[in-house]
Fold:
Amino acid sequence: MKRFLVVLALLTAGLVAAPSGQVRALPPGIGPENNNLTINSNVVRGVTWPNCSTAEQEYCWEMPSVITPDGVETVMSVGALADPNQPQAGYVKGTPWTYCHNNDIESRANCLLDGNDWIEVQLTGEFTEQEKANTYRWKLRTGKFSPDIMMLSDAQRSVVAGNATDGFTLEVWAKPALFAYKNNCMMPTCGQNDVSERVSIKIQGYATMLMVGTSMTRPSVATAAQRDAMRGIFISTNAMNQSWSFSQDTFNVSATSPHFLPDGRTLTPGFVKVFLPGSYVLQDRGYTDISQVKPEFFDLKVSQASATAKVSVLNGGLLVDTGVEHFSSPNPSVKLKSAAETLAAQNLAALQQNSSAGSGPNTVPVGNHVKTTISGIKATITVTLTAKGTFTVYRKVGKKLTLVKKVSGKKGANKVITSYLKGYSFVVKDAKGKTLAVRTTSVRFARFY
Structure:
């Protein structure tokens, strides 16, 4: 099912790539236009958001903190503008740097809060190699802008809360990451022989609001329910040029950097990870619990070759490490198969094994027999009798049998419908306690929701 398509890209510090691929410098805007805004205020493009000073204020940032490797968290003293003529450089390192725009470098119009504009998510300054071990935490109050999907360097966690009536918030935990830069090293021309001209350790990215409807130029989903399920997804990478798209239930990530660091010998270290919140796994992909998901349930390709995902449970969702370790252009794609595909296939294999155990590998039972059909979380047990009589249906989990139903059956087909979960099989016994032969089992590939 095609859900939506989006192509957005970023980066060098202070640069944003337009959807067409043209790179434009965005002048940092400092001014009073976005000061003291509330939920119903208009927010101006290209002007940085201030520190929040009141409980009612929106389109602002709350004071960040730094968490050391041993877990000690300290609120940072940031936000002092040292040089108004060099805004970003003038801020104390670690100051949140956020504003909305749509790559129109001169526009100071009101931000569009329907998915046409997006917001920068950054902390100012250059970090040190030692500071890469720290985690930096901060919160943005984004008002009516819903920060549905984020792309941010070494993101560790994000929490999206609130609503358009009271205001959304985006809380971020991220580590600084090394970026390697070379002029004109763009997709798809940045290749195996490119050597970076400089490196920088930064925290930088952006967040996108999903439209509801159809758009070929901006991220969109068919329904508000789909948007809500996907809210909180993030993609983390340290690629110099980044973009992502999503269609046919697949995340396609373009990640490009020079192949070598400035010494010309060391490969540029890289990573691409995709976080899928529990809401997406359960509501969109149809699983009943994230623990059901296994690495083999992902279709993962790196440099157009199949790969095995490294999957870990993180903050109620799944973090998918694509295995990318260096650049230039690995461009991974990630798809979590639906529960209807993965669990139904497992169920079929288990039921076929049970069938073989009950009837023998080459026998076709005659007389009274049983056919079990699985459709999602529903099981239909069809018991065919040569004459009317009583039979009993049991659910088997491991070695334990649990009564499902006792039936006074007619001659011919008798159906019993019950619930089905992974690990269930069914046993049918006649009035004398003899187990009836299993003739066939089948699974219909249907969604669970």
